[in-house]
Amino acid sequence: MTEPAAPRPKPRRARGLPDRRGADLAVERQLISRVSKVYEDWGFEPLETPAFEYADALGKFLPDQDRPNEGVFAFEDDEEWVALRYDLTAPLARFVAENFDALPKPYRRWAAGPVWRNEKPGPGRFREFWQCDADTVGSASPAADAEMIAMACAAYSAVGLADGQFQIKFSTRKLLDAVLEKIGVAADAYSTRLVVLRAIDKFDRLGVKGVEALLGAGRKDESGDFTKGAGLDAAQAKAVLDLVGAGKGTRAEVLNRLAEIGGEAAIAELRAIDAALSALNVSEAQAQIDPTIVRGLEYYTGAVFEGQLIGGDGVFGSIGGGGRYDDLVARFRGERIPATGFSIGVSRLAAALQSKQAAQSDGPVLVLVMDQERVADALAMADELRRAGVRAETYLGAAGMKAQLKYADKRAAPIAIIQGGDELAKGVVTLKDLKLGAKIAAGLGEDREAYAKAREQVQQQAPRAQLVAAVQQMLAR
C-alpha cells in the first residue's frame, strides 16, 4: 500500500517582512557603502551589536506578563525575556554602559543593520528594515548636534542627492517643555505631555486643524475611529499652536520669533547649533529650524532632527532622523551621560534613489547559448567581458532562443550576445540592444513594418575579436 504523500507547506512570506533581490540590494549596498565612508571620514568607528538584546535594555518596550511582545518580537530564554532590537540606539546605550571605562569619551560610532518592530504593517511600512546610524556619546555640546546635522547633509550628498532635493529640519524638545510649563502643564503630567508630543509629530499629515483637535478633546478620522486628545483648553492649545507655526523664514528669523515665545535655554541651544552649522558651511536650504519636529520616540531629551526628501511637488517624506538622548545610558549607570545621533532610513532612501538612478538597475549583459555543445565558447565570452569590467552572464538553462530572450528581459539585461552557426562561420557575434528595442517597440506600437526598419538600430554584428569594444560602445549609447 502506497504511503500518503506528506503534506507540503504553503510557500508564504511572513507578514510585514520583505524579500529583496537584485537591483534593490545593489542600491542599498551602494548607499550603505557611501554613507559609512562619510561617517568614517568624520572620525566615527564601526560597531556591530547583536540582533537580540535582553528586553529590559530596550527602554520603554519592556514585556510584561500580559503583553510580552508589545512593540518588539520577544521570547523567553533561561527565564529572561530576549527581543529583536527595535533600533540601533538602545543596543549602543547598553554597549556603552557595559564598556564605559574602556571607551574614549566622547565615543563616536556608526552602525548599519536590520531592525524589527512588532507593529501593524502597511504600504511601504515593514516590520523589518535597515538603518544606518552615527552617534556621539559623552558630549553635551550643541556642536555635537550640529555635527550630526552637517554629517547627515554630507551623507545625503554622497549618495547622489543634490542641493534642493533634501533638507534637515531641526528643533529641540526644550521648546515644547518651556511652552507646557508656561501654560501650566506639570512636568509630571506624563500622559498629557505625551499626547501633545504625538499631536505635534502628526502636523505634516493632519495640518493645523487636526493638531488642534488632538490638543483638545480629540479627533475622529475618516474611518470613524476616535483618538482621545490632550484635553487642553483653547488658550493652552493656542500657545502650543503658536509654537508650531513659528518656523517660517531663515534660521535667524525663526530664532527671533521663538525668542518672543519663550524658553531661554531652548533658544540658547538652537543659537549654538545655528552658529556651528554656519561654521560647517551648512546652508539655509540644507538645514532649517522647524518647531513641528519633535520626533515620536520618547527617549529624546533635547535637539531633534529629521531628514526630508524634496521633489518638484514638495516633500516626499522622512528619510532619516535623530536627536539628543541624554537619559538612555543613565538607565544602566544611574548617571546622566549626554548622547546624540542621526539614523538614515536605508530602505526608504534606497527606494528614492532607485527611481532617481533607474539606469543603474540594469542587469548583466547576457550571452545566449545557441548550441549546447558550444557552452564553453559562451562562457569564454562572458569571462572576457567581466575581465573588461562589464557585468556579464552566460545562459545556462536548456531553452531555445525565444525563451532565452524572455529570460534576458526578466534579468533586465541591456544587451544579448548571440553567436549561432552563421555567426561562427563568419567569425562575428550579433549584439542585440534590448533596452533600445523595448523603447522603439513601445513607441511604434503595432506598426511591424516601422519596427522592421528600426531593427538595424537595435541589432548589429561585430567581429568576435572586437566583442568587448562593441559591447562597451553599445552600453555607452
From TrEMBL:
InterPro entries: aa-tRNA-synth_II, aa-tRNA-synth_II/BPL/LPL, Anticodon-bd, Anticodon-bd_dom_sf, His-tRNA-ligase, HisRS-like_core, HisRS/HisZ, HisRS_anticodon. Residues 25-364 form the Aminoacyl-transfer RNA synthetases class-II family profile domain. One of its GO terms (molecular function) is ATP binding. L-histidine binds at residues 87-89, 117, 131, 135, 295, 299-300. It catalyses: tRNA(His) + L-histidine + ATP = L-histidyl-tRNA(His) + AMP + diphosphate + H(+). It comes from the Bacteria. Keywords: Aminoacyl-tRNA synthetase, ATP-binding, Cytoplasm, Ligase, Nucleotide-binding, Protein biosynthesis. This is Histidine--tRNA ligase. It comes from Candidatus Viadribacter manganicus.
